[in-house]
Amino acid sequence: MSIQATDQKRPLTAAQTTVMTAICELLLARRYPPSIREISQRAGCKPNVIGDHLRRIEEKGWIKREPRRARALIVIGGPAAVLAEIGPETDRIKPE
């Protein structure tokens, strides 16, 4: 099941929703953007897969990234608003 996007955002796949949820939860908990490794551990994916998901999530308008910079990730609309939009999908996230 994918989530529906608002404004100019396009819908995310189930796997992208899991990654987006992990990003938002880590951002809210730590107050700074997570690393690829942190996202992969939280979402239960391999780090190279996370890179692919991040590229597609950015193309769909959910995040902005700065090339060649570690942790340079901005959630469009803020992590709390995105989590509210994602809703019950968060049960897919593995606990830390």
- Give the beta-strand count: 2
Strand order within the widest beta sheet: 1-2
Report the sheet with the most strands, covering strand number, pairing sense and barrel closure: 2 strands, antiparallel
Q: Examine the coordinates and then state which fold CATH places here, giving the name of the CATH topology.
A: Arc Repressor Mutant, subunit A
Quickly give the structural class: mainly alpha
Overall CATH architecture: Orthogonal Bundle
Q: What share of the residues lie within helices?
A: 40-55%
Averaged pLDDT? 85
Proportion of beta-strand residues = 5-15%
Oligomer: single chain
Radius of gyration computed on alpha carbons? 12 Å
Span between termini = 23 Å
CATH class: Mainly Alpha
Key features of this structure:
96 residues; disordered C terminus; mainly alpha; Arc Repressor Mutant, subunit A; two-stranded antiparallel sheet
Explain this structure.
The protein starts with 13 loop residues before the first helix and ends in a 10-residue tail after the last helix. It is globular. It is mainly alpha-helical and 96 residues long. Strands 1-2 form a two-stranded antiparallel ribbon. Helix 1 (14-30) packs antiparallel against helix 4. It has helices spanning 14-30, 36-43, 47-59, 79-86, and strands at residues 63-65, 73-75. Residues 1-5 and 90-96 have low confidence and may be disordered. Strand 1 and strand 2 form a beta hairpin. The protein has 4 helices and 2 strands; from the N terminus they run H-H-H-E-E-H. The chain has one domain (14-87): Winged helix-like DNA-binding domain superfamily/Winged helix DNA-binding domain (Arc Repressor Mutant, subunit A), CATH 1.10.10.10.
